[in-house]
Each structure stands twice: as C-alpha cells, then as structure tokens.
What we know:
The chain has 15 helices and 23 strands. It is an alpha+beta fold. The chain has three domains: about 1-30 and about 595-620, no CATH class; about 55-320 and about 430-445 and about 455-590, no CATH class; about 335-430, no CATH class. Strand 22 (about 520-525) and strand 23 (about 535) form a beta hairpin. Helix 1 (about 1-30) packs antiparallel against helix 15 (about 600-620), helix 3 crosses helix 4 (about 185-195) and helix 10 (about 360-370) packs antiparallel against helix 13 (about 405-430). The two termini are about 20 Å apart.
Amino acid sequence: MLNKERNITTMLARRVALTITMACVAILVTLIPRTAQACGGFFCNLGTPVVQAAERILFAVEGDNVEAHIQIQYQGPAEDFSWVLPLPSVPEIGVGSEEVFRVLHQQTDPRFFIEWDNPEGCYYASGCYYMEDSAPTAAPSEGGEGGVTILAEGAVGPYDYKVVGSGDPADLFAWLNENGYDQPEQAESLIGQYVEKGHIFVALKLLKDKEAGDIAPVVLKYNQESFACIPMVLTAIAATPDMPIYSWVLSGARAIPLNYFHVVLNAKAYDWIACAQDAGGWYSSWTGPNCQESYIDLVTKATDTAAGHAFVTEYAGTPSVMDEMLYQEGQYNLNALKAIDSASEFMQELLGQGFPRTSAMQGIIRSQIPMPDGLPSDCDEENEFYATWNIDECLAYMPEDWEFDAEAFVAAIEEQLLDPLKAAQELFGRFGYMTRLFSTLSPEEMTKDPIFSFNPDLPDVSNDHTVKGTATCDPADNWKATEITLTFNDGQTVTYEGEFWGCGGLEYADGGTAIASEAAAAEVQVLRESGGAIAVAPADVVSTDEELSQQYPTGGQSNVVADPDRNDLPGGNTGTFGTTPGEDVRSRGLFGCSAIPNGAFHWLIALLLSVMFVVRRRYET
C-alpha cells in the first residue's frame, strides 16, 4: 500500500513539475523579444537550423517568365569572391533577402510526430527536445577576352555584375579567368556545354567597399521556355559530396522533376523514436541528436537507388503558409527610428522592433556605424562593438568628426532590407501553389540539369508526418518503456525491444534496430505532366534515366492550374512518405521554435530538461 501511494505521489509530482516547468517556459517565451540574444545584438551567431553546404533556389514561373531567388553561400576573402551562372537569356538582376530562405525552411521543413496511445498507467513518451545549430558554408560556383560580348553590366546591392556571351567556349573560358572569375581547367568542357546551347553567363564580384558578409541572395528575372531549371552541371566543379539541393517552385500547380526521377521515402527507414516529437507536446523543428543529418542521409540513400537522379516532394500546396511571414504593413515604426539621435538607442530600437538579423542588416549597420581602427580588446570584434550592452563604451572611440545620421540609416534599411522583403511577400501572394522539392547530389551525379514542369493532377503533400506509437512500460517504472510499437499509415507495425526513457537514450536488446534493414525508398517513380505516378522497377532504372534525359516541358504547361479533384487520382501516392495530407499538427495549438529566439531556445530547453532530471531524481530517492 505504501509503495502504491508512493508511486502515485511520484507520478503526481512529475506531472506537477512538468506542468510548472512548461508554464514557466511559456511565460519566458512571451517575455523575450523575437531577436533577443545573449550577446545582445545583430552580430550574434544567427544559429540558422540548416546543415551542410547547399543549393537553395526559389523559382516563380508565369508562362515563360521565370523569377529565381538564389542563395549564394561563401566563406573567404571578399577579393576572392566570384560567381558565374549560365542562363538562357539576359536577365534583370536584383538582390533579395536571406530571410526568405530562413522562413521557407521554417514553414516547409519536414516535421515528424508520434501520437502515443499507451495502456493506462504507462506515461512514457518520446520527450527529447534537442535542436542543433550549424552555420551553412559553401564554396561558390567559380567564375578569362577574345570573342566575348558584354551584353549588360552594372552594380546592384553589394555586387558588380557582367552578363557575357560568346560562340566560342575557349574564348569565354579565357575571358573569365583573365577577368578574375577563376575557373579550373575541368570547367572549360562544362562551360562548352552551355555555350553550345546558346546560353549566356552572369558573372558577379563584390564591389570594392563590400565584405564577404555583405553577400546576399541574387534575384534573376528572365525568359526561359524550359521553365525552372537548375544548372547543376557547372555546379559540379565546386560541389561537396551529397550536397543538399533545396528548390521551391511557385506556379499554379504542383511542380515535378521532369528529367529526374521522383522517389517516395520508406517511413519505416526513419528513426522516429529518436527524432519524432510527441504529437501532444511542444514542437521543435528537428529533435534528437543528428536527426536533420539522419533525414538527409535517408534521402541520399533513396535517390541513390534512382541512379542518383531523383527528387523528393516535401511540400506541395498553398503558399499561404508564407502569408505575412516576411513583411506586414505597419510592422516597423520607421518614424520612431528617424527621431532617435543616439546610435546606441537606435540599435536598441532596431532590436525591440524585431528587425531580421540578416547579412543585409549587418551590412547596413557596418556602413552607418563603421568600426574605427585602434579599438581596445573589448570592442575590437563586431559582436562586442555592436552589442547593446557595450556599444555606448565602444562608440567613445569613434572619430571626432563622425556623426550619427538616423535618416540615412532608415533610408538604407528601406532600400536594402525592407524593399526586398516586401517584393518577396508580394511574390508569394501572386501564386496559387507552391512545391518544395529536395535532393542530394554528388559531383559525379551532376551530369544533367534538373528541369521542373507542372502536373495539375497530383495531390498535395504535407510536411507534417505522423505515426502512432504504443509503449509497454516497465512494471517498476511507469515512465520507462521496455517495448515500443509503431503503427504506420499503411497499417504495418514495427516493434522495438529495449529500454527507453525520455532523454535517457535507447538501448536495444538485439544491439540494433529494424530500421537498418529497411530500404530507403518505398518507390521510384516517373512523374509526367498529367496523370498519376508511374512506378519504375529497379531493373529499369538505368534505361529509364536515359529516357528521362530527353524530356522537355510542354509549351504553356506553367499556366496550368491544380485540379481540385486531384487527391482522388489513382496510380500511387507521391507524398514524401507515400501518404496524403492529414491533420496539420500546427493547428493543435502547439507553439514552436519559430516563436522563440534561437539562442534563447537552447537555454530554455536546457533548463526544462535539467528541471525534469532533478525532479525525477528527487522523487526516486
């Protein structure tokens, strides 16, 4: 009897402690400004939850008109930066915002949930809330005079650009190298492939007064009959193995990889227990150690079964998930900023109003409040000089003739930061459909450029994925499971035996998991511009890959609009894990890491876990 009462007391104490802790965290979240960071400014580690060097492109397609936002990632001296891109026609060139890609990831990244249905008295649930930060790094696509024509040139944002063309690959290759767009020898034959197709080249450098930190996404508007196309062949020169390729396509219907395969992932090959969030708890975008990398590895293995030429559809549906996510009218009080005559107060107000902490904002701050030479050790780094808790002391070292100009600062913010965000927000509002397609490619697999077309018949794809879980608890500890059964959407189940307790890790009795034996791809498919998916047998992958290389979009296909009855289409499912969209987990009233500043999120999670651990130890002794 005493043991029973003690167990009930322990259970209640755990529940109360967890409830109090969650409530405290929720209150703390509401008190922290969106951009607050421990270092107190815009030069903190942004902690974008993105891994590895990667290609990120947003396409918007209307008829033959294409608008492409391309994120350029680069580390190194500013004077060494160059970027060369082949295009079918001379583009209009502008500068975008990296905030677009941050929010696109936030809104469309895959999210994994387990709905627990345990026997009465079993309180185990997957309760780990880890989140890893890793700074994206990438080498740029690198960019010789002779028979080369300069079709356009100028400056935009931080860039000096030239648009060049030539009928002779050797002349173009020589021009690029002679003009500082250094190309390795192996690039000559690749450049030749684009020259033979009549492509021109956009070549970018940084302006002399700009730094590598000023690099921003490039916006290109051009005419292309083949719609959205990623120039992967030339990318191979500077690519990393299994490089992630993220592409978002705005149009009237679902985008498809026309000359690449489409793969459906095998849900049983994903480590749900370590990486899925409790569907009844709080949400974080990637849970568990290395879970983002684990998912990318799963996609890599799946695309490798399709000759290394395949994409996964991670989201397909309304672009409304981006509504007012980039810019809202009245979001920022620019008049209040213009009235401030103190640089430190101005910086405080910027933080208080929640301006994005992007490279564009950092560039504006550098230009308006330039760091002088000869600073002491506590001011000679950007994250110290511009920190809100330190900037007053550091500004004492500014030259006597320097004056703070709030009007100029606000004008720069409007032109370089807000105008690109307004344009991007308007772009999402113009289209009825958005598709996110993801792949990983190694240099040896970059033998053809992915071309996307459109199919109005294919169903939507949710980025939320849920399985059902049932835990069998240890008779001596109703918060520890000895067995977990997962039930997938196709009705199949997988059972794992071992010891499972919250964040305590997994210990499998057989030393492994059933996941390891599962194939990464549930199905390799060909998607056409109408109708359902066509499954491809493993023996036919190589020959079909060659056939796909000859595919070209139908004229006018980008104008098609999604069929409202498309979800009833026969021919197999084309979702990420082969499932149709279900309930949006976000509608359950959960709050997520997107509402919490990155740096604050980590210490709040650490606080939560440490309190849970202390409570558990307290009531078990």
